[in-house]
Amino acid sequence: MLHAVHDVASKLLAVSSFQDVCLSVLNRCMLDNGRFEAGRFGRGQHSSASAGAVLNGVVSIPCVPARLRQRVRRLGCSLLTTEGHLRGHDEHPGDGTTSWSLAQVLHGIAKDSTGQFLRSANFANGLTRLLALQNRSDGSWPLRRGDFDDPVFAFYPVLLFEQLSRTQGPYAEYVQESIRLTADYLLDVASATNGTIADAALAVSALDRIFRLGRLDDRAVSRYFDHKARLISDLVDETGNLHLTDKYIQNDLQPRWHSVTWTPVLYACTRHWGGVQSSHNFQISARLIESFDRTESGWKGPSHSPGRASSWASSLALLNVYLLARDIVTSGLDVTEYQNTMRSMSARKRFDVVISFGGPDRAVAREIRDHLVAAGLRVFFDTDFRHDLLGEDLAILLQDIYFERSRFAIAILSRSFLKSDWAGNWEWKAVLARMNKQRQGYLLPYFLENVEVPGLNPTIGFLSADKVSPCEFADIVVRKVQAGRRP
Q: pTM for the complete prediction?
């Protein structure tokens, strides 16, 4: 499979060898004396935050030889002092220990499959120092003690804690209280009305990992699903265009610090939300590929000014290209067809799935909705969009949602559906209109009862509740959507 992924990645970037690009970037990231390039290639200054990007980016790609990956991780470990401090920037050598850089470097080191670096006192003391930076009252992560906090600083600690929890080593229990505090904080971030879409995306992606670890209680799980459903639908706007933008952050204390959440490298966060052919993933991957500078053999990041490629942007972008290529291969897609669709407007649907049902069948519909949302699909479910529906002409709005803005429609068919003024009338008319235009692959019927539905072609495949449970039906829908059988 690795060979196939390498070929797809090479085609995506229009280069002869993806591996050669990885090795070229990694070589330019490494300076003398165990230092890592701070920003643009050729700058010649060290940054431990950039080291974290290298360790978590290009060094994580399997086509980089294992011996080379191990050597770079060893250099990363050497950035930690025996007291757990990080080597600072060349301009501020005594001040490299921020929660942002420390979490990244520790996570990059923890990825080592041999576990040898986890056994070092430097790693143990670095982890202790990181945990001490967390605000224990609200779970947030300040940049430094007394400095500002930001949702982005909580992301890499969660990745680190997930890695340590899965290794079942000595640190698994050590980080559990910090996971709980961070989860509470991230739930608040995901629900904030004054935050950015990028903040919410990082928060929900981190919560995905905490959820998979089984560290959310029932109430937190319910909040997580609700926030995730809303976020995924908000990733694209009403016209189907990507709603994500780069987010710049900086502090006002000395030494000054700045960073950016760069949209193209968020594919690693969103890739499981609806699959590789989901509208937001098409558009994020398009930005990722289009921003590759073949002359520089790298990425400049959010900067549009002329100059050399950036170490951190190139390292993280390469990982995202690898993940995209792997997802294309796993989905059985043709890379050329994917590229053509990626560039087209036809990929821009706001919702993966809309659900139509009669009022008495709401419990079944919600069970299906919860399962689809947990799998990362963008779902139109009426109660999730009360604010969009309020005051609108629903006949016109629902026609638009069902006809123009969705990839698939689930119809939960029963006597209640047929009696419903909305589901059995306006929504069903919109479904039939779409089916007249598109003969197959749009409607996903689920029968709760044996009823005759006007206008439904008897040759269309369906599933029924007497043989398939709502959760099993939802699983099948997820596989269909993620398999890329796109309308």
A: 0.79
